Amino acid sequence: MQTKAFAAHSPTTTLAPLTIERREPGPTDVAIQILYCGVCHSDLHTVRGEWAGVRYPSVPGHEIVGRVSAIGKDVSRFKLGDLVGVGCMVDSCRTCPSCRDGLEQYCEGPHGFQGTYNGWLDGSGENTYGGYSADVVVDEYFVLKIRHAQADLAATAPLLCAGVTTWSPLRHWKVGPGKKVGIVGIGGLGHMGIKLAHALGAHVVAFTTSPSKAEEARKLGADEVVVSRDADAMAGHARSFDFILNTVAVAHDLDAYTTLLKRDGAMTLVGVPATPHPTPNVGNLIMGRRSIAGSVIGGIPETQEMLDFCAEHGITADIEMIDMQDIEKAYARMLKSDVKYRFVIDMATI
User: Fold this and answer.
1) Nearest 5 degrees, angle CA 338-CA 317-CA 150?
2) CA-CA to 79 of 20 to 30 Å: which in 26, 113, 173, 177?
3) What's 90's domain CATH number?
4) Which of 289, 315, 280, 49 has its CA nearest to residue 164?
């Protein structure tokens, strides 16, 4: 079936209207009328060709909230009219150890997971088109139930990427009451990390280079705020953190944070810088049995867990709504960090 979309045709062209083909729903497929789509930095990196293997035309968008408009004959989890979400993946091999563990983002199959846009990770098969479109058709396994109120749907959309990207490591490293947790960076990812760590019951310390963000961080749920350029303030937290979630996507000195970890503490990186971080001091790691780890998005079960937790606790992203036609202006502002904290497209404007 044909549907309206916005696409980039090359790394140097602006996004423009395009009619794309969506498959007719198969036996286990769910067709979704897209209501809102969040705008992720990954969208910008992709359409500008900053990551290898981008396939054009590129229709980005993997923070999708919509309403079920049709279902296949074997669909059992959804019915017409249900509010649903789609995140960063629309398929995986489903048979490898990671997929069997509900961690499809680490799919070890021959192609990796299939992205909501830009196809399979290894570049095989047909291109996939994301949420900057009026409709999408997805296998029911990769569709999430949305339990937030109707009024919160737009602000729920970024949970499908920014929310689960921070939730997954917080849960894996068992963040909760009695844990001291640092969140580095207060942006699209960081603001969700603060909200979720706070709701999980941890003592949350936000790190920022900007003193002006201190009050904002406290409103988001931070118990303390440290300006990372203040050496004395940083030193005052030495060897005190159980866990640090580092959301910064530019290269920086990791040693400044590993020295803040307790023995057996871990710092997990979720931001991907354009250039490598400076090599960390191994002494900081081996003398405290500390670790530096990485994490990417989240599997389908933990994404559903995160959505249900956020609905129960009234958690959404802080957003600014835009029309589809203003996407290039939004990209320009994203590059200047001029958004608090996530753009969401009202797909009625497509």
Assistant:
1) 125
2) 113
3) 3.90.180.10
4) 315
> Of all residues in the chain, what percent are helix, strand and coil, respectively (each to 5)?
30, 25, 45
Asked whether the whole model's pTM tops 0.85, one would answer yes
Beta bridge partners of 335: none
State which amino acid sits at residue 230. D
Number of domains in the chain: 2
Residue 24 has what DSSP assignment?
Answer: P
Whole domain around residue 117: which residue ranges?
2-161+298-309+316-349
Nearest-CA neighbor of 244 among 277, 219, 269?
269
CA dihedral for 267, 271, 272, 274, sign (positive or negative): negative
Contacts of 331 (CB under 8 A, 6+ apart): 39, 44
147 and 268 housed in the same domain: no
Residue with tokens 């979630």: 245
Residue 139, amino acid = D
Contact 328, 13 (CB under 8 A): no
Same domain, 157 and 169: no
The DSSP letter of residue 120 is B
* Residue 274 banded pLDDT, cuts 50, 70, 90: confident
Six-digit token string for 315: 């958690």
Say yes or no: 171 and 250 in one domain.
Answer: yes
Distance separating alpha carbons of residues 273 and 51, to the nearest angstrom:
11
Q: For residues 124 and 265, what is the distance between their CA atoms, to the nearest angstrom? A: 39
**For 82-137, how does the pLDDT look when each residue is reduced to its tens digit (9 = 90+)?**
999 999 999 999 999 999 999 999 999 999 999 999 999 999 999 999 999 999 99
What are the beta bridge partners of residue 233?
none
CB 5 within 8 A of CB 59: yes
Tokens of 116: 């909501």
Element (H, E) at 284: helix 282-286
